[in-house]
Amino acid sequence: MGILAIFALPLLLLGISGIIHIYQSVMWLVSKSAVQNKVVVITDAISGLGKECSRVFHAGGARLVLCGRTWEKLEALYDALISVADPSVTYTPKLILLDISDINCIQDVAKEILNCYGCVDILINNASMKVKGAVQSISLELDKKIMDANYFGPVTLTKALLPNMISRKTGQIVLINSIQGKIGVPFRAAYAASKHAAVGFFDCLRAEMEGFDICVSTVSPTFICSYHRQPAAGNWEASIWKFFFRKVAYGVHPVEVAEEVLRTVSRKKQEVLIANPIPRAAVYIRTFFPELFFAIVASGIRENLKTEEEN
Ligand SMILES: NC(=O)c1ccc[n+]([C@@H]2O[C@H](COP(=O)([O-])OP(=O)(O)OC[C@H]3O[C@@H](n4cnc5c(N)ncnc54)[C@H](OP(=O)(O)O)[C@@H]3O)[C@@H](O)[C@H]2O)c1
């Protein structure tokens, strides 16, 4: 009885972790099979998140069309993908130059995309431009450029590829948005405005596409960390820190966001918010208690000004 009691807990934990492992492996296979042979277009495939999305969709056997505005970076991504993948279960990616803020070129780029395989199954609108600064310090010209890259660009590309999806009565459109498409924070006015506009457009599109079996998803991460900001491997203190606080201190790793994008596609989720408890709570406070949210943001700004004056 005593020996049984000693072994019961470790055996239970082992059993639970085994079940979790099997569940995760099965879900990964399900997600993979959902994108196998599908034509997947990723804009700004060379960004941190774009690269990871390219990797997971490529490994899943998707026929990738990778877009980006720098040819050398696209070629480097191409080399990285084909060097690690098994050629018998993956397709060689196609590369296309696309500057998402160059609205006048997008129709031609869309034709080029359609010429690759004759159709598009999944469009991942990932490209975006960031800007940080006080409203009065950002020129109206830059405000418009941000709006072109983050709103008119994805909208123009989506509209150009939509007739192909509608005629085939199938397709998925994913907008990589941001928590800043749900809440406005200081010094991010142009970016937040463009992300709010994009989410509004794609929410309406989702409803309109209901009759065509076209799924529209928005994925809104909080802060995606850079690789170089990860704690060093092999350092136990860093590992514990990583385990408990990584998401708060360093943001979410691009790999985790890419895997969530794959799950979003395979499960046809409509809206995903990737956020820790604090930013998640901020979204709810903004919705249900807006004045409390504005007061918290304002006190943060006052605190900042006070610290700056003291220094
Ligand atoms: N990073 C975050 O914390 C965060 C948080 C929430 C949401 N997101 C969203 O996640 C997506 C990917 O962001 P990321 O953080 O992975 O990007 P990133 O690694 O910071 O890279 C920025 C990318 O933007 C590209 N770019 C800038 N202007 C462009 C244009 N006009 N046309 C095409 N590409 C352009 C750059 O291309 P070049 O290298 O060629 O200049 C670069 O690849 C974006 O939609 C972003 O809004 C990011």
The small molecules bound here are: NADP nicotinamide-adenine-dinucleotide phosphate
The number of E-state strands comes to 7
The average pLDDT score comes to 90
> How do the SSEs run, as a string of H and E?
HEHEHEHEHEHEHHEHH
Largest sheet, in brief, is: 7 strands, parallel
Strand order of the largest sheet: 3-2-1-4-5-6-7
The count of helical stretches stands at: 10
Helix content class: 55-70%
Give the DSSP E fraction (strand runs of 2 or more residues). Answer: 5-15%
Distance between the termini: 66 Å
Classification by helices and strands: alpha/beta
The coarse silhouette is: globular
Task: Outline the low-pLDDT stretches.
Answer: none
- The whole-angstrom Rg is 22 Å
Note down, in words, how this protein is organized.
The chain is an alpha/beta fold and 311 residues long. Helices cover 58% and strands 12% of the residues. It holds the Pfam family adh_short. Keywords: NAD, NADP, Oxidoreductase, Signal. GO terms for molecular function: oxidoreductase activity, acting on the CH-OH group of donors, NAD or NADP as acceptor. One of its GO terms (cellular component) is membrane.
